[in-house]
Each structure stands twice: as C-alpha cells, then as structure tokens.
Amino acid sequence: MADSSTQVRPGGRSAKVRAAVHRAVAELLAEEEAETLTLPAVAARAGVHPTTLYRRWGSIAQLLTDVAGSRFTDDLVVPDSGSLAGDLRRWLADVATDVADPDTLALMRATIGSGPAGGCACVEDRHRQLAAIIQREQDRGGTAIDVESAADFLLGPVYYRAVFTPEPATADWARTLVTTYLATLSTP
What totals of helices (H) and strands (E) does the chain contain, helices first? Predict the structure, then answer.
C-alpha cells in the first residue's frame, strides 16, 4: 500500500487549489513581468491564503517548475506518419508552434529564469516524445539515433529562438531543421 503522504489525489480541494494557483500564475505572467511574480500575488489571484503556497511549493521557483511540468506534459501528440522524417517534421513543427505562443513563452522564460529545475520542466516531456519517435523508428527497423544528440540538434535551436531572440521558430523553419538534421545522419 502506498504511503498516504506521497499519494496525489485526483480531485477534491487540493486539486481545485492547484488548478486555481496554476491559472493565477498563467494570468499574472500574461499581465506583468515575471520578476514581479510573488507567492502572495499568486495567492491573492487564486483566492487562497499565501501560507498554502508557501507550504505546498515553498518558493516561486518551485511553483513555476510545477506549473511548467504540468503545462508541458502530454501537451503534444507524438505523430505516427510511418516514417522518421514525417514524424520528426510534424512533431518539431508542433513544438515550434507551441513555444511561439505568447503565454507559453512567458511561462517558459519565467520558469527557466527561476533556476535549473525550471529548464528541465520545460523540456522533459519533449525528450520523452522524441525518444518515443526514435524508438518507433528503431522498431520499424530504421536507424538507431541517439536521443540526446537529436534533442541538441532539433530542440536546442527551437528553444534558443523562442527564449533568447525576437525571431520565433516557425513551423516551416522547424521542418527545414529536421531536413538538415536527417541529412547529417546520412553523411559519413
């Protein structure tokens, strides 16, 4: 039997508070700079007492990591076009479109700026999705590809453009990036 202190309850007051807090973070990030985000401001917007946030999350960094982890988990469908090229093109185009969204971008920038765990929360599920695409290709008898190298080549530029430049990664640009990556795989 699982320890009751580590179980996550799917509903009830705890889930309602978490949803209200996550919604409050998204709203506040859409309205103001991430640097002004505080646990008391989030609590006020969510309609809960600040001690609830301090007790559950402890810091703005931990709260942002939780919000990002929730936001970026299972938010994209891993495509199955029948080919590695098709799967990667569709998936990376979807990633580029997702991170170009102003609300998503505000959450990413705030979370990444909050500490190392924040950056991981923004890309962890993307790595799992990429690994699933690569594993499916291997199951079809295709080329074995290193997930970390593929993430560096494909996700790195998309996230770099989104976070550090005013030029967002477009879906077309992302598909071109996949074509370039696949060409490097066939070069000896």
Answer: 9, 0
